[in-house]
Amino acid sequence: MRSYFIETWGCQMNHHDSERLEGQLLRHGLEPARDADRADLVLLNTCSVRDRPVRKIASRIGELARCTPPPMVGVCGCVAEQEGQALLDRSPLVRFVLGPGQIGRLGEALRAVARGDRALLVGFDADSGSDRREVSRRSPTRGMITVIEGCDEFCTFCIVPYTRGRERSRPMGEVLDEVNGLVAGGMREVELLGQTINSYRCPTTGADFAALLDAVAEVAGLDRIRYVTSHPRHFDDRLIEVLARRPAVSRYLHLPVQAGSNCVLRRMHRRYTREEFLALVSRIRSAVPDINLSTDVIVGFPGETDEDFVATLDLIERVRFGQVFGFAFSPRPGTPAARYPDQVPEAVRKERLQRLFELTDRITLELNRSLVGTLSRVLIDGGSRRDPNVWQGRGEDNRVVNFPGNGGAGIGDVVEVRIVRAAAHSLIGEVETSAPPRLPVLPPA
Known about the structure:
The protein is an alpha/beta fold.
């Protein structure tokens, strides 16, 4: 077994898990293959949040079985935790199953394969996290750092507490060491990760997420800090004060609302009301007027009426999110919502999702157009996929900005860009040769 290929589905945490997996594979002497057909080992790092994940994995394993010769397969991630032994029983190609709480034991799985055995490594009690020193970073400008694993919220639609376990926060000193290491290696931005990141509590000092964010912002040489995902009910005024006071903290906040109807929010077990969410948004925008908010929305949740759905559209119109990640409800095995009566027909779910996208696309374009003529401080990620002569990066509000690649700037540089045109999902600009200093962030009201 000399080469590997990793396929990743899902959120930032899954992509960072793949970086951790790759770091261990490299340490064990394996080399990356150009594609799965050429690899001796293919890792399928899976997500079970979306629709039909098990069917998707089964289909992919079937495709790999037709390769000549077929590779060995390791199934990792949330589907691995959810399905366990069933994945080993499904196909002889699957040589090991590795849950997200066991990533640090990949070496053990590889040794089992070398002996001709098959390994089932799931659960949440054995991953020491020592592999975090071996992460293979895929971006030269941005580094992801997990600060809290798992989730204690148990929303009725969500499988995460069952596939990633209960909340487990990393020590603050350990996180800061990792941040300092990334900055020393040339990273300009870090992204702190957690399923419910603002419920973070340092296991040694009791420091909360506001304190952690404040400490990370002190790291010399760090230009920008992003973080996902925040739960509305854990977003307190101390955290808002840090956002307003620390210019290194990105002017972007992902704040999932999921629904705009109190009836639906109760059935989802979100433990906040529509009114409380709108009040929170008002406090955040009073302190940080230039904040760019994004959110998650589920339509067609069991029992959702036409009036409930209209309430969601109304909330989106009121808040005017810069981006909305919309999903039609799909039942996750083992979650309470999968057993709820009054399941909404698929045709209705699809129609509501289309109406949601029509509204959010209009709002996003309007917000983008309002930025024409303004300056954006852009961290360059690389060339545009459509035009190699165009640089692409993200502003402090996380919006994608494309601009001509002239003037000597390069990947990892931060440049001031004047926005000259707006598209539905990106901004087009020109580098400002003599840009004024960044406007100061307003203090909390």
